[in-house]
Amino acid sequence: MKDLRIDGTISSPTVIASWQEGVLYMEGDSYPENSYELYAEMVAWVSQYLAQSTSPLTLELSLLYLNTSSIKVMMDIFDEMEEYFQQGRQVSVNWYFDVDNERVAELAEEFKEDCHFPFQIIGK
Amino acid sequence: MKINFSELEKEIQTILNTPQYNDHPASRALRQLWEVNQEQWNRMDRLTRLSDSYQDMMMRREKSLSERFDKHLRQLEKITRISDRYQRNLRQLNLELERTSLIDPLTELPNRRFIMKRLSYAVEHRDDALSEGLVVAMIDIDYFKKVNDQFGHQVGDDVLVSLGKLMNDIIHHYGSLGRWGGEEFLVILPQHSQEKAIALMEKVRDGVASYHLSIDHKSVSTSISVGISCFRAEDSMDTLLSRADDALYLAKSKGRNCLIVGS
Description:
Oligomer: heterodimer
CATH architecture of the largest domain in chain B: 2-Layer Sandwich
Structural class of chain A: alpha/beta
Distance between the termini of chain A: 32 Å
CATH superfamily of chain A: STAS domain
Strand order of the largest sheet of chain B: 2-3-1-6-7
Shape of chain A: globular
Largest sheet of chain A: 6 strands, mixed
Strand order of the largest sheet of chain A: 1-2-3-4-5-6
CATH superfamily of the largest domain in chain B: Reverse transcriptase/Diguanylate cyclase domain
Number of domains of chain A: 1
Distance between the termini of chain B: 127 Å
Number of helices of chain B: 7
CATH topology of chain A: Transcription Regulator spoIIAA
CATH topology of the largest domain in chain B: Alpha-Beta Plaits
Helix content of chain B: 55-70%
CATH class of chain A: Alpha Beta
Order of helices and strands of chain A: EEEHEHEHE
């Protein structure tokens, strides 16, 4: 199936999704003016992957700053992953942070709160 | 009168099942009445079931609406909480950045940018009607290079920190002290007469000259040269500063550890 690539800018992260590997990768800051439009394709990719494939899904995230609409997008994705997880699907999140910036880890903890699937916050 | 329906039902059944009554008009009427009654009961039963299931559906719908509402509320609260944290972090970072952009990290005194801002404010907000005006003093630590060469840069840094603190303790009630760069400091004294400024800077010079910094059993003593200039009506920030700079140069050439007022 199709892969996805959205090039990053100063205010939006690089997004790479690989259907074959079942990995969605995001890296950078996220404060675009049009979060919902920007992420529409990515959100659709996740929904399709979860619905059409049976393989595990892993999110590899190196996100620093997120504006409010980006937070909503990420939470929607995590909620959808949680629903599939409750039905027995293998899903996981690896959230990477720079050890010099503990604040990113604290925020990732907030996201993790309601997720029961494996959600690792990894310093590097 | 209370009717026992099951007794009545039994009685009717018995009458309807008795063959010799079959042709009696009353029996026929009773049979018809019985059938109508049965039909009504069935109808009532169906209505009740239908009504129950509608009620059930509405209850489920309400429950799912309230579940969805709760879910959205929870999501909203979480988004707000996370967003607030991002904003708080940004605000803290901003404050840190602002601080690092305005404060000299070594002496923790205002840096050149900050002291220039203060000077510009003092120049703009001076009151020429007052007899006492704006005075600046440029300070340079004498033979600072020798301190560095003799004792090392670490001691040099310690001297800058100690003298910065010592001078600021004297000056901060009257004006501001900032690190101008290297071993140079700038003093801004709003509303000071030349005499008052000279007296204060003399106190600073004397304080530095009699101060000894002890580090690792070594005693380091220094002095400062000071160039003073008083704001004149035709002055700009640049001319005010360059007169102080010239006066400092003169103080250096006159043997250091002294004050000169720029003319």
